Structures are given as C-alpha cells and as structure tokens.
Amino acid sequence: MKRFVLHPEAYSDIDEMWEYIAVDNIGAADRTREEIYDAIYGLVDLPNQGHKRPDLTTSPLRFQSVRDYLIAYAPEERPLLVIAVLHGRRNPQAISTILEQRQ
Fold first, then answer.
1. pLDDT tens profile 78-93
2. What are the chain's domains?
3. Which residue in 2, 25, 27, 80 has the most C-beta neighbors within 10 A?
C-alpha cells in the first residue's frame, strides 16, 4: 500500500524546485529534494503535526515547512495526499490561488 500520493502538479513543484536550485548547486538541489521527501514520509504517521494556514485556504489542509518550502497536504486522506510543494516566500495570494486550483 502506498503511504502517500503526490498531486500530479506537486511532482512538477518538486521538479521545478530541484531545477532552480541545481543551476547553482546540484548537491544542494538533491539534499533539498531528499529533505522534502523525508518530511512527507514523516507526515504519514503523524499527519496532524503540520500547521493550519487559514490565511491561505479554508480547506482542511495542513502545512509543513522544509527549508524555504511549504508542503501543503490533506491530513485526513489515506494515503496521505500532498497537494503542493511551494516556496514559502511566494505571494500568499498566489499560493492561495494555486491551492484552490488543485483541489
């Protein structure tokens, strides 16, 4: 049984993040991607450890920070559903719009 599922566009989020960082440092890109996946695996067993962000969505999503990135996920879904992996310094309105489009 799968422990988590990435929304199809969440795969793109991670790929884009990796490509952006890899321009300067492939090792750092690899480490960041690995930390994101490690955090997702950690959320599977403790899905409510993330925090709510009512400023970004009214949906029952939670958010976990990894470096400068936010993992947006649905804690009640089984397998755990990762909606997005976005840079945390993005405009909150842009993040909110992305999350709306993906649900």
1. 999 999 999 999 999 9
2. 4-102 (3.30.2310.20)
3. 80
Q: Are 90 and 63 in contact (CB under 8 A)?
A: no
For the four alpha carbons of 34, 38, 44 and 49, in that order, the dihedral sign comes to negative
Element (H, E) at 17: helix 8-22
Helices 8-22 and 26-45 sit at what angle, rounded to 10 degrees?
A: 150
Exposed/middle/buried for residue 72 (C-beta within 10 Å: 0-12, 13-18, 19+): buried
Peptide bond into 47 cis (omega under 30): no
